Structures
1.
Amino acid sequence: MEKLTEFVSEHMSDDTTRLILDKARWPEIDMDLAVNCIESRRKLRGKVQEWYENPRLYFPARLSAEQCSSSATARYKASFAGRIGKSIADLTGGLGVDSWFFSKEMEHVLYNEMQAKLSDAASYNFRILKAGNIGISCDIAEKGNIGHILGNFRPDIIYMDPARRGESGKKVFLIEECTPDVLTLRDEIFSYSRHILLKLSPMADISMACERLGTTCREVHVVASGGECKELLIWMDREWDGEYSITAIELPSAYPATDGSGFTFMPSEEKTCMAAAASPEDIRSSSFLFEPGKAMMKAGCFNLMGRRFEAGKIGRSTHYYISSSEDKALAMKDFGKVFRIIRTDPLDKKSMKNLGKEFPNADVSARNIPMTSEILAKKLGCGPGNGIHIFGLRSDTEGNILITAERI
């Protein structure tokens, strides 16, 4: 292993295809494993920086490094699980990133992975990382086998991140198409643990997933990081039989990260809430523009956002908000982007011509108007921005408008 570690460190910037072709030069090196380690480490850079910086770890499968959680999302999951219980069994261990972060918050962790090469690598890596509270299992999470995986261990929580690729390698999104099938295993798992923590694709429909999983769904967390919606976390509680809550969380970055404040609401609240519509006077005089982040958009709290922040929604289908309160605007920064409005104009030829001359360098976004962002930028004659952003938006009261703003 020492020779492999040295080889990987020395060849991190090399062309891996060329290394495979020239593998006869290094007969003492398992070149397939070395290339997997090199390419995996590249994927972990900035994603799981703690592991990238440790040259003694090894990674036998590139796909696992690509699919694993980032430090930011894994840390959030671990913090989330830590308030539910003190022990957890990860039935879909993969590369082991989630289990490692769980071990920092929980007293006892069981890592289980059905692929022996991944399980062996995780066992080795956990020893290097001095994660002594993680037990190892290599078995298939399938109906009738959960008790065999757990043995005498009765965790407070059982965690699953089902594989979202079918046998052909094509991505799948329905719960029953993922492996393992949580719908099939749910009752059996609940016989061993009160709590299930489930990670789903960010593409999954929240209401449909919770309807399929049943009334034990207690909380849904929509997690975004680095400007992308990364995952849905669903906490299922065997003793819960009520409405679930939704929390949208915008983590600051992939690495490092802190647990920010979430925006939590009940679906029934959003359903019965009327949006605070922006009046013509609001649109002409407001000082701040709010663009919701990816988690907020996925969570679908479009009406509550405006009500809670006392911000006017520009249009029924235009999910942008305006405010004259600096305090309210700054409070919204945890949940998306906030801009200071420079000017507001009607979207017409005269305005586009004038704005293009005044702001030749500006980012451009078109939302809910009959043209794309690229076409609007071309009509404005704007190149890449220098902190200025021009929004083409549809207002229910003012029609199509242009808002020129600078991000705070």
2.
Amino acid sequence: MFFERHGGGERALLVHLEGQNPEAREDPQEFQELALSAGADIVQLSTVTRHQPTAKFLIGSGKVEELRDLVKAEHVDLVIFNHTLTPSQERNLERVFECRVLDRTGLILDIFAQRARTHEGKLQVELAQLEHMSTRLVRGWTHLERQKGGIGMRGPGETQLETDRRLLRVRLRQIKSRLEKVRSQREQARRGRRRADIPSVSLVGYTNAGKSTLFNALTSSDVYAADQLFATLDPTLRRLELKDLGPIVLADTVGFIRHLPHKLVEAFRATLEESSNSDLLLHVIDAHEPERMEQIEQVLEVLGEIGAEGLPILEVYNKLDLLEEVEPQIQRNADGKPERVWVSARDGRGLELVGQAIAELLGDDLFVGTLRLGQQFARLRAQFFSMGAVQSEAHDEDGSSLLSVRLPWVELNRLVTRDGHEPQAFVAQHTLQ
């Protein structure tokens, strides 16, 4: 009942406000891309200069009258504002325009509702929609308000409204309970991966930066990727084998956007926690985007909201194919550690550098090399095999085993020091320094 939407193609008038606080400023180009992603048929983008928003309409009454005439002349079905509207502002504008009015949050919610594919994704979207709708519920029952009086206007208006609010609260509790189970299941899966010592790496970044294209290129997957905002909504995990490191779990996550509605951050917390519990974040950046610095700041802001600001980050500058005279490369910090990688996910240039950089950053806690074990250490040799840490075995002239192993340093220390020895006494060759 609550979520019926048109199949797209609605004639939409876009209203963008200029002159506000620079921190609250929205991008009109991005606004148009959002509307197109929702399936709107854009009639016109109207830019309104207003330094002080009004309480009644957000914009001035003169501009409202001007827009009303445009709505009628162009047979507009929907007016979308590139800003957050209060419930009363939405109500007032709808009365004047005599058509539906949507704000930026409602527009993003609608895109999310169209993109959700999994049961979990649909639950998360419904939660965000219900919480957004709870403040606007009164609009659906204005024809039952007692205050108006008159024939046909009296009756159980408040009772019906209270009934709907109660049903809304019940549904919210149900969804939150189900999402809590999803959250618990994800945490169990993460604990399993930690026990198996499989590092997790999450792709994060601004929407349409090319995360899914990079994900597909690295993992040979076929996750939906398109040149549109919020093409990916449901998280996807794949196992990836890296040279000199072994298996990792790579996660493709929902893209961020400036002023991402707080309701969405809360609703998608179960999904976003996949990023906050990762060993490494790959921050995918559109290298061709003129406003990429602002986008980087927005991503870091959302990472702070989900408690992921302290995690190690490798910046991946994507879309190298759109730049001239820039070659794939790894840029390092003062300590020599990878800090930034330049790649093109579309044509595959530089993809091997991403794997190399991940292996270097995650390999600090991993021993990859050869151990020499004399015949008296047969029990220790058997333990390495039982852990699945041995990649190959050879023997030298005195009969000692030369084990090519890969395992965390903490496990190597635990096994060797238990017999009163130092790990370095067995190391014949250490690949990662």
3.
Amino acid sequence: MSDTQPTSVRPKGRFGFLIGLLIISAALVLGTFSGYGWGVNDRVQAADATKSQALGEQFAMAQEDFAARRFDIARQRLEYVLKQDAAYPGGTDLLSQVLVQMAITPSPTLTLTPTVTPTPDLREQESIFAQAQAQLAASDWDGALATLDTLRKKDVNYRTAQLDGMYFIALRNRGAAKILGQGIYANPPNLEGGIYDLTLAERFGPLDGQAAGYRNFARLYIQGASYWELDWAQAVNYFGEVARLTPNLRDGSNVTAMERYRLALLSYGDTFLANEKLKDRCPALDQWGASANISPLDADYSRKYNDLNLQCNPPTATPEPFTATPEIVIVPTLEVTPTP
């Protein structure tokens, strides 16, 4: 019996040893993967922080270059920043300012170092470029745009950034002039053309708040005109908004927004007269009154206003003055009995 006991004990010992070994191995594997994951996460965060710091440094240096009028260097830095992060705060706005300054600032004449490779003859491009600069300075937006088109067709790679800035200036200012009816665009103004020019200008840079406002009110004017004689309530709504801030804005009809608003108020008031009940006709007085605040009513509307006003606000009867009736005092008569 003593010979069989060792054989039954040995397998149990080996089995326990294997289980322990597996547990230790699993723990090591899990630890390794956890450590790897943490390491990767740390490296990603460190890389992001390094990138953010680098972009911040480039943007700060671009601001310094812009202030020092080193526009070309500032442009290169900003293009790098926006390539890495298209939504970098302030990047797009500063790049737009740089491009505008590059367009209006004459580039310094560079002295070329003679090389074995012959230098391209850019005298014709330089001449056309100078012509476009002169046209911009003279506010000749049509001429400047035509010259820029000629230059870009001749050499698509010539001063690309500067030409983009010049396109922006010409389109922005021509669009505003068409909407406001200034210069050669005064008779008549061209709201649709102005909106189109400002939309094209946005391809070269963001619009300033003033130009964006011009475009917005031009759109409101056109929208209000689409309701003319169809829905006077809507016409009053749209032209009231335009007349409040840009009263002299007008379209090809040469009728100002304020005059459109006045006429729309009169016609909107007329729509209430078709109601059967008097209380539903009385709101016409408010519309006609608002129109009269802009310009006095003509004889016809004055008569209509007075007639309706008498019906909606009849005069109160004036009471007759009170006359006090004198009080009559009755004095009793004393009867005197003679003394015997």
4.
Amino acid sequence: MARANDVKNIMQDALAKAGRTDVAFEIYGFGEDQKLSPFDNQYPEERFYNRTVVIDIVPAN
């Protein structure tokens, strides 16, 4: 959750500098739930991909 919030804060700051305050964020963290991780964390590559932040951009209705 901390990683997701860090990414959100970075994006929010950059958007604010560009004058954009009309962007809403929804943050979800799945790092604590081993069942949701796509890889087993056995190898460094798996740990890397399990720590990825995914950003979906959804246009407002």
